[in-house]
Amino acid sequence: MNRREAFRGLIGFAAGSPLFGQTAVQPGGDDLMGPVNVHEFEEVAKRKLNKLAYDFIAGGVEDELTLRANREGYNHFYLVPRVMTDVSKVDTSAEILGVKMSAPILIAPTGGKNLVFPNAESVVAKAALASGTLFCTGSGAEVAADGTDRPKWWTNTTGHANKEAASNYVRRVEDRGALGITVTVDNQYQSNRDRNNRNRFDYGYMATGVPKAGEVRKPRSPALPAMWQPHTPDLTWDYIDWVKAATKLPVILKGILSPEDARIAVDRGVSGIVVSNHGGRQLDGAIATIDALPDVVDAVAGKVPVLMDGGIRRGSDILKALALGAKAVLVGRAPLWGLGAFGQPGVERVLWMLGAELKLAMALAGMKDLASIDRKLVKRL
């Protein structure tokens, strides 16, 4: 059964629920009804999810300035399409650090998946495999037991206390089949997230899921306004040296916004950079990723691939990021809305939608492949 058939069957089942007030499949046709874009997947997921879970995923930090800027940033850039080019065939295939994908769309590392769906990391791993893309995860434990047909994955870490711990982690994920090591570098402290504080969210729920109705649990890590909760406050560039000394895998830094940090990262020998502000969930008022991207690309000067995440909801968003120099993008919330709405088929459908929208946007812009895309395609207004 292909992804379209799986999703059609699932939509058909869901159509009898209050979430859908219309027929799932048009009479005499093959068209899917229900969510037709990522925004609508979010609305379905919001109705299904516990408020604690939805606010954790959807929310940002404090006044959510950066959260909104990530989305609104794409509105500052307009496409300048070319015409009279042969786009009867459009190739979206990409290769990032030796990993081949059908489109330049990776699944970003996201905490709290179990708030959305049981055993969520394994479910997303299977969706990544079915979709022919790469996903980032914590340790690979959820994919190591999946047999020989495993998804392509990069591990994600926020750092370790010392060189020995870093080396041990690297060896574990290598043994489990990781193809790269992503280091998230902007997680020094727990950020001040008003939605979580207001909801009295317990960060222990990230592993266990939210309590069921009437269930009482002992608090493990309750959210408090402006709590001084350290994560990796002592992480320095030395950590990159530790990891690189312990592995031959590519090391990718995620959380870079400053061109100067990008230059240092390249000098330290990293294999790739992800322009990211943690989805607007760490420092409020930080620059939007689409706005930070061009300067980071210029600073790197083609020495390593630059990727980007933040605010992506449409294929045209991806096209703008590619035009500004990103080699690929990572999507975090979008797959989670698919997961919360319909489980694994929902994740697959969201990834398919974004890839299909990108392909169509490229065709309408006169771009037959990724190599055709450059900054002349976008203009900031």
SSE topology sketch:
Elements: H1 3-14, H2 38-48, H3 51-58, H4 65-72, E1 77-79, E2 94-96, E3 99-101, E4 105-107, H5 120-131, E5 134-137, H6 141-144, E6 152-157, H7 163-175, E7 181-184, H8 194-198, H9 205-208, H10 238-246, E8 251-256, H11 259-267, E9 272-275, H12 289-300, E10 306-309, H13 315-323, E11 328-331, H14 333-342, H15 344-364, E12 378-380
Parallel strand pairs: 4-11, 5-6, 6-7, 7-8, 8-9, 9-10, 10-11
Antiparallel strand pairs: 1-12, 2-3
Write a brief caption for the model:
With 381 residues, the chain is an alpha/beta fold.
Describe this structure in words.
The chain is of the alpha/beta class and 381 residues long. It has one domain: Aldolase class I (TIM Barrel). Helices cover 39% and strands 12% of the residues. It contains 15 helices and 12 strands. It has helices spanning 3-14, 38-48, 51-58, 65-72, 120-131, 141-144, 163-175, 194-198, 205-208, 238-246, 259-267, 289-300, 315-323, 333-342, 344-364, and strands at 77-79, 94-96, 99-101, 105-107, 134-137, 152-157, 181-184, 251-256, 272-275, 306-309, 328-331, 378-380. Strands 4-11-10-9-8-7-6-5 form an 8-stranded parallel sheet. Strands 1-12 form a two-stranded antiparallel sheet. Helix 13 (315-323) links the parallel strand 10 (306-309) and strand 11. Helix 1 (3-14) crosses helix 15, helix 7 packs across helix 10 and helix 13 (315-323) crosses helix 15 (344-364). Residues 6-32 have low confidence and may be disordered.
